[in-house]
TrEMBL record:
Gene Ontology MF terms in the entry: eukaryotic initiation factor eIF2 binding; GDP-dissociation inhibitor activity; GTP binding; translation initiation factor activity
Alphabetical list of Pfam families matching this protein: eIF-5_eIF-2B (PF01873), W2 (PF02020)
UniProt feature, compositional bias: Low complexity: 177-186
Family stated for the protein in its record: Belongs to the eIF-2-beta/eIF-5 family.
Organism (species): Filobasidium floriforme
Lineage: Eukaryota, Fungi, Dikarya, Basidiomycota, Agaricomycotina
Keyword Protein biosynthesis attached: yes
Chain ranges of the W2 domain: 248-404
Protein name as it appears in the record: W2 domain-containing protein
Keyword GTP-binding part of the UniProt annotation: yes
Region (Disordered) location: 123-153, 166-199
Annotated transmembrane regions: none
Length: 408
């Protein structure tokens, strides 16, 4: 089994732990990748997302902790209690609501602990060919009645291979799903298919229940979630979107008006009032609003301003596009409005980085790519030149981390 790897993404309430190689880990265990992922969520009390071959546990979780939980999962749901061999397959009896491990090494069949919450999920989402339903007289299963009886171990091996291959995986609401997905959920239509009215029966007939942990990623479901998503800033709650749905150059007037309001009220306005004004002007959750924040939010002491405004900055820069826009506004502030303050740029970048407003990759990419999107090219070069002390510090910190890992 490969060593399970993790990657922490996002920040604040949106922070999550991604498991990039969950497919490979699960395949080595002859289990669907949704099973260990769901197990992590149950044990950690966290929500999980399992769609489009991405396996995510909400919150920041260290790799060592998840590996410990994986060992527990293997002990409870993989290893044969009799011989401790991991080469087992799950047999699901939906009628009796029982799940047993069939060991192809010693032939023992042992029941799982049905008190664990994961067994409920497995019953609803059994692996391929695991239900073992026998055909009744006159039914489709009767066609095999005259066939030679297979050796028990051969049957177990075939079942294991089928589960590894992920063929004919059951959907959440019945039927079968595409093996390309490999996560027990029906394949979703892409945007073009939706636009053309393409209808996938496996998706259309699927029924989600409160116990299902798979996330519906259809365009309609995403739109509904975004509509209901709320961000609380000092008592203010408002929907936060990830994208600017204005066309190129459209709606610039409202952003200019928002920036003018920020500049006029930055001394006394609270974060909640800024958020409320952004909502009122229909720029809340739009990346272009971050340009105005980056250019108009600052007063005399920029580092203290970051400390004061870390909450509103954090909730309005939840994606890479918004962070780039904030840096664009900062370029305009130092490059065009206050070139005399440009020596302070490394300090404000450090403050924004340490406050988790800006991610390292975004800052590094910005620092190495001169652009004339927000200021002229020469000014852009000058701004990035002044940021070199901080960019060098970031690079050296990375090299130091790499050296520490090598020493270990």
């Amino acid at each position: 089994m490969p060593v399970m790897t993790t990657k922490i993404e996002g920040r604040g309430n949106g922070i999550k732990t991604v498991i990039p190689n969950m497919d490979e880990v699960a395949k080595a265990l002859s289990r669907l990748p949704t099973y260990p992922t769901k197990f992590f969520g149950i044990e950690l009390g966290a929500q999980t997302t399992m769609a489009n071959d991405r396996y995510i546990v909400n919150g920041a979780h260290q790799a060592d902790r998840l590996r410990e939980l994986l060992d527990v999962f293997i002990e409870k749901f993989v290893l044969c209690p009799s011989c401790k061999n991991p080469e087992t397959v799950l047999l699901v009896n939906e009628k009796k609501e029982e799940i047993t491990r069939d060991c192809k090494a010693c032939g023992a069949q042992t029941m799982l602990d049905m008190r664990h919450k994961l067994t409920t999920y497995i019953l609803k989402n059994p692996p391929a060919g695991s239900t073992g339903k026998k055909g009744k007289k006159g039914s489709k299963g009767a066609a095999d009645a005259g066939a030679p009886k297979k050796d028990k171990y051969a049957e177990a091996e075939e079942l294991r291979e089928a589960q590894l291959a992920g063929t004919n995986l059951p959907t959440i609401g019945g039927g079968t799903a595409s093996p390309a997905n490999g996560n027990g959920a029906a394949a979703e239509e892409d945007d073009d298919d939706v636009a053309k009215g393409f209808n996938n029966p496996a998706v259309a007939n699927r029924k989600l229940t409160d116990d299902d942990w798979a996330v519906d990623t259809s365009a309609e479901a995403v739109a509904a979630r975004m509509k209901n998503l709320a961000v609380n800033v000092d008592g203010f709650a408002g929907g936060l979107g990830d994208e600017d749905d204005d066309g190129e150059g459209a709606g610039d007037t409202k952003y200019t008006a928002f920036g003018a309001w920020i500049e006029e009220n930055k001394e006394d306005a609270t974060d909640a009032e800024i958020a409320a004004k952004a909502k009122e002007m229909e720029v809340w959750g739009k990346h272009k609003a971050c340009i105005e924040l980056g250019q108009k939010l600052w007063r005399d002491d920029l580092v203290k301003d970051v400390e004061k405004r870390v909450k509103i900055l954090g909730v309005m820069t939840t994606n890479e596009k918004a962070q780039k826009s904030l840096l664009g506004g900062i370029e305009k502030y130092f490059g065009n409005d206050h070139p005399e303050l440009i020596p302070q740029l490394p300090k404000i970048l450090m403050a924004l980085y340490q406050a988790d407003v800006l991610e390292e990759e975004v800052i590094t990419t910005w620092g190495t790519h001169v652009s004339k999107k927000y200021v002229d090219k020469e000014t852009s070069k000058k701004v990035r030149k002044s940021a070199e002390p901080f960019l060098k510090w970031l690079e050296e910190a990375d090299e130091s981390d790499d050296d520490d890992e090598d020493d270990e």
